[in-house]
What we know:
Bound molecules: zinc ion
Protein name: Small CPxCG-related zinc finger protein
Helix content: under 10%
Low-confidence stretches: none
Amino acid sequence: MDAHVPNPLVCPTCGGALTFEILDDERFLVVWSCVECGLIRATEPTG
Length: 47
Ligand SMILES: [Zn+2]
């Protein structure tokens, strides 16, 4: 299983690099955090 992310995401606030952590692999729940300003965003499955 290749978990490589092809498109690097950047922080919408400061433009810094975002790092992600998979909280729930089955539900594809991922939390993104910015290394520059500390912004935290979470993605949740729709539907
Ligand atoms: Zn940021």
